[in-house]
Every structure is written in structure tokens, then in C-alpha cells.
């Protein structure tokens, strides 16, 4: 088994008024292309929400999203800058208008390995064969649309790479 460096991260699942979600396309050596919400590592002294808001601003230029309830937590493996990593992600719901990222984010996207961005409508998300992080993200979004935010974050556990 590969030794993994632990890392804590937080993300915002941004949903527009029509129910579309904003995701970013990444490529990882172990799992390949996948779509994930904006976010990243928690720095010393930051809360999960502070990290998620900071990372989202760095990756999108948006500083006005409205952060809501915690949606889920999960653990997964990936390679970060050549280092095998086991990351624990906390994902929070957020609201914002549908728009393109703002400002020159070329360097930020290069550093974070963001290849593309997209607003996914509920129908496109449900029908897609793309890989999403966390796995089951389309079902989680459908559940939130149907039932609202969970009373407690959903614990998705550890997802091994297949």
C-alpha cells in the first residue's frame, strides 16, 4: 500500500437560482479527468468555511457567494504535486448567480490544475457519464433540490480509487 500524506480541504458547491451547479474539471494521475466543486486546502488557523471561501475566491474571482449548510464530508486519495495524498474534504452548500469566473485566473488555474469550468444544469448533471468528485455528486445535488440541506453533513466515508 502506498503511504499517503494527510490533507484537510474544504469546498463550496455553488448552486444558481435555477439549480445549476458550478464545477471545475481537473486531471489526476490516479483517477483521470473529474469534475469537482471549487475549494482546496485548509491553511493553519482557518476554519473549513474560511478556507472554502478563500479558495473559491482564488479560483473564481467571486467574493459574494452566500455560504449555507455543510453538505457532506469524504476521504479520497489522489496525487498532489507528485505526492500521494489522502484528503478529507468538507463540502458546503452555497448560493450565487450564474456567471463566468472573474479576473485573470490563468496562473491560479495552472497551479491548481483546473482545465475547464462549467455550470451543470440539473438535467445535464443527472445524465452525464463524467466522473464527479465526490462520487455520487449528481445524486447529492438531486437530494438537496428535493429535500433541502441536510440537518447534519452526510458522511460519505472513504472512496478508494478504482
TrEMBL record:
Gene3D superfamilies: Nucleoside Triphosphate Pyrophosphohydrolase (3.90.79.10). Its cofactor is Mg(2+). PROSITE patterns: NUDIX, NUDIX_BOX. Residues 5-142 form the Nudix hydrolase domain. SUPFAM superfamilies: Nudix (SSF55811). GO terms for molecular function: hydrolase activity. Keywords: Hydrolase, Magnesium. It comes from the Bacteria. Belongs to the Nudix hydrolase family. This is NUDIX domain-containing protein. The lineage of its organism: Bacteria, Bacillati, Actinomycetota, Actinomycetes, Catenulisporales.
